[in-house]
Amino acid sequence: MKIGITGPISEVNFGDYGMLINNVYDLGNKHQYKFFYYKRKGVTEFDNIVNEYFDDYNIEKVNVKFKPQNKKSEKRSFINKVINKLTRKGIRYLNLMRVAKPFEHLTPLELLDRVDGYVTLKKSIEELDILIVNGGGYFNILWSSWSRKEDLYKIMVPILIANQLNKKIFFTGNSYGPFDSSHEFYRMFFKGLKNTKFGVRDQLLSESYLNDMGIKEKTIVVIPDDLLVLNKKIINSENNLGLEKNSYVVIETYVSIEKLEQYKINIISMLRTLQVKYNKKIVFLPFQKGNGGENQGKYFKTLTPNKEMFHMYDINEKGFPELNDVYNLISNASLVIGTRYHTMVIALGAKTPVVNTMKLVLGDYRYYYNKNFGVLNMVFKKQSFEAKEFLFFKQEEMFLHIENNFLEIISEQTKLFGPVYDLNMKYLKSLRSSFFSEIIKS
Predict the structure, then answer these.
(1) Residues 242-300: pLDDT tens digits?
(2) I need a surface site. Which of 88, 134, 185, 330 has the fewest CB within 10 A?
(3) Are residues 260 and 300 in the same domain?
């Protein structure tokens, strides 16, 4: 079978390339694959990831390119950059949008008209049996309004062409929305898709957002996140990290050092408690180079009372953390402290207690409420649990809670990873297995 895959698969973000690896492993190496990707300036790790994980797979990489923008588009891009910069400084994005008015609600035809080398790209897609839209959370107002919207358009283009060619299209574990002022843009895109199955990774808002787009319920399938149920090849990978089980706490964050400085006292106090009172090593797990986690790890080390009990996962050799290493580190930790959604997903799938801070997106928490609370609802279905024991809005409150309630956090969460959880995970695994079987049999 010839399988095409689109999505933010060339991102160096752990969740995005991790989902690609897990999905392809579950599909198997008997197929021919085409990865439709986009190039980002300064991001070169995609080639390394493909070489590292798909050595025995038949992979063709297809670069989706756009024609150079005209002056009007460049002006719009500049306006977007200004809005994004103000957003990062704390000004509510949606209020700005009301003033600036949404723009570039491009029709599908306009997106296709932007393609550089359209005929060649179409021929490549004509050869496919099916197209998979990799999981993630990129169909929302954020991706259609900020400086990354060109990447979103390049993800959409193979979908639109496959749709024209009447190919079967499968969206794996995606979350959808919020759409807000981008509603019309997405309605044009989604409503035109035929012969399509929409995988939804939450049971909170995504399905209703799709319904608002005119998507029929019979085409929507609830499945787990693409990294919640991991392939055995990843789970059974050799652990060469040299750390004893439950001897350490994993910390992952990409919160800016400027903000972390505000919580410096809280961080030092928490680290001292973990190391001195509970004799736990600190393992910092950066998901990206530079300010994507690496620099934050270096900062945490400067605050750590006992430097000999601080370890930092080294991503410099390959430029990204290996999926099997991330799983092994998280599955053997006493507790995981994170800010990224997929840190929590891996922990929940590995039965590891986890706490996570939710991030504001475009001025509110709907995006991460749908994702983070959504996955908690799936794995702990039919159980009584306190979401506030897992999710926090403020970093300093999370640090203080860990310092004061470390053993209680572990004890209470461990109780949830019992027989009911096991049944839920077995069911979620069956949903994923059935969905992927349908893909392969198409």
Answers:
(1) 999 999 999 999 999 999 999 999 999 999 999 999 999 999 999 999 999 999 999 99
(2) 88
(3) yes
